[in-house]
Amino acid sequence: MNEPHQADPLRRERLRWRARRGLLENDLIFERFFGKYEHDLSDADVGALTRLLELSDNDLMDLLLARKEPEGDLADPDVARVLELLRTA
């Protein structure tokens, strides 16, 4: 992650809270992700993650498990980078 660090702890905490999902599998992936990357996220990463979190639990699960790839306005480099981090966390 080459961009400046997202330094606002409140914004990161809100994002972590918002990542709590109805599916346990999604929760586990996000817990590992935040444990590994939370303090390294850039503003672009936070924006991409926010966009992913707007999806339904099942659509998000399909992306996280690589059953689908991002389409439409989600098909951009920031989302792809964050999705890859989520998949490998």
Folded structure, characterized:
- The protein has 89 residues and is an all-alpha fold.
- It has a single domain, classed as DNA polymerase, domain 1 (Orthogonal Bundle).
- Helix 2 (24-37) packs across helix 5 (77-88) and helix 3 (43-53) packs across helix 5.
- The chain has helices spanning 9-18, 24-37, 43-53, 57-64, 77-88.
- The model has no long low-confidence stretch (mean pLDDT 85).
- The chain has five helices and no strands.
- The figure for the number of domains is 1
Low-pLDDT parts are none
Number of helices: 5
Radius of gyration: 12 Å
CATH class: Mainly Alpha
CATH architecture: Orthogonal Bundle
The helix content is 55-70%
Percent of residues in beta strands? Answer: under 5%
The average pLDDT value, as a whole number, equals: 85
The geometry reads as globular
- CATH topology label: DNA polymerase, domain 1
Largest β-sheet summary = none
Task: Compile the SSE list and pairings.
Elements (H helix, E strand, L loop, with lengths): L8 H10 L5 H14 L5 H11 L3 H8 L12 H12 L1
